[in-house]
Amino acid sequence: MNPRGFDEEPDDEDFVSQVPMAAVEAGTGRIDASTQVRYGDIKKKSLTRFQENDVLFAKITPCMENGKIAKAQGLVGGRALGSTEFHVLRSRGVVLPEYLMHYLLQCSVRIIAEQHMSGAVGQRRVPRPYLESLEIPVPPLAEQFRIVTEIEQQISRIEAGETILAVGLTKVDEFRKAVICSVIPDSLPSHWKSLTVGEAGSVDLGRQRHPSWHMGPEMRPYLRVANVFEDYIDTSDVKEMDFSGTNGKYHLKVGDVLLNEGQSPHLLGRPAIYRGDPEGAAFQNTLIRFRPNSDITSEWALLVFRRHMHTGRFMKESRITTNIAHLSAARLKAIEFPFPPIDEQEEIVKQVRQQLENADRMQVELESVAQGSTRLRASLLHAAFTGALVPQDPADEPASVMLDRLRAAHGAKAPRKRAARKPRPTPPGQEELPS
Q: How confident is the model at residue 426 (pLDDT cuts 50, 70, 90)?
């Protein structure tokens, strides 16, 4: 556990890998050791030393729970310096590193490890004594080889299926966007009208937040960017503000369409219809309200705005500040708003809804299969470490015999349990945030 250094100390001019927490994938055992640095440039920094075939175990939340566990491989010069939030396990020869890695990747192991974490919220860690005392089943070395080989073959098949599922989900999303973007033809039919958004309805910004309005005689729930998603409103976190003296200017009516005024560029203008939940709601100035004229349905307006978002039309009218795109009410008013007669609006909306519902059903089915692959991984590892994955061979040398021989050869004693100790503070300027 946590060996203090390398088997062979590199020279200052040697290159080694640098492995931050972000270089270890969650749940897969993969590690990116491609970043290399001159050893003399970083050897005095407070970083964790490890070498080829060591097993890394992220000890801090949420990295541990996410399964940032890997066998160190492909290291430059066979050595690396990495995050201080890794526990390092180095095999003495009785257990294969790959076997140990897969054992630790089990959800059941990490759930129990989480229960033993200590420290403040957001900085909780798995203590060394817990991991050091963790008992693992150790079959003969030859059987470990068979288990690891079978695990990796089966995981390759699972990952191939997951890749197909991911492609399927991408196709569903592409289909959904294609349906929305086809709502308005390139050449408008002669009986359609072409107005601007400002001519098709009223456009208003919501009320700006202010400390003096946190309390007052007319407290109302209000919606903000965090509540408005594409085609739905999330009411799980709705705040309140005083709207007294505003004469209903910021009150919402059922059928109002809300659009995000500021957002990531590709999500600018993300729209949803207010359908009365929460009741009596108002809206903040991070949102723009569109209230359609009587000859335009809210559902048609929603489709037009979804199309403008997905085709990048809103982006053409935006201004960028600190990586956030903004769409002013004035610019929104000037954007084109084509629409057919109201009966045709309703028919187009009906057909689009049917296609989108088909896409939603397909997505649910694919996501259900994806969840099944997660359960399949868990079942695979459970079978591996309960002796049910590969056959046993009586001719294999028992692990206990190998361990006794190893202890005799090196004069080693059984590992002594260590008491928990307080972590040493990280020197200023050398802190690393977990990823």
A: very low
What is the phi/psi pair of residue 283, to 5°?
-145, 155
For 337-402, the three-class secondary structure string (H helix, E strand, C coil) is EEECCHHHHHHHHHHHHHHHHHHHHHHHHHHHHHHHHHHHHHHHHHHHCCCCCCCCCCCCCCHHHH
Q: What are phi and psi of 127, to 5 degrees?
A: -70, 150
pLDDT for 412: 52
> Which amino acid appears at position 148 of this protein?
V
Q: Which residues contact 301 (CB under 8 A, 6 or more apart)?
A: 200, 201, 257, 290, 292, 337
Give 271-301 as a DSSP string: EEE--S-STT-EEBTTEEEEEE-TTS-HHHH
- Token pair for residue 341? 């007669």
Predicted confidence (pLDDT) at residue 431 exceeds the cutoff of 50: no
Query: Does the pTM exceed 0.70?
Result: yes
In degrees, to the nearest 5, what angle opens at C-alpha 238 toward C-alphas 242 and 273? Answer: 100
Task: Scan for tokens 């009966």, then name that residue.
Answer: 343
Q: Nearest to residue 283, comparing CAs of 241, 318, 254, 244?
A: 241
Q: To which residue do tokens 């001019």 refer?
A: 13
pLDDT at 411: 66
> What backbone phi and psi angles, to 5 degrees, belong to 258?
-105, 135
Q: Are 41 and 72 in contact (CB under 8 A)?
A: no
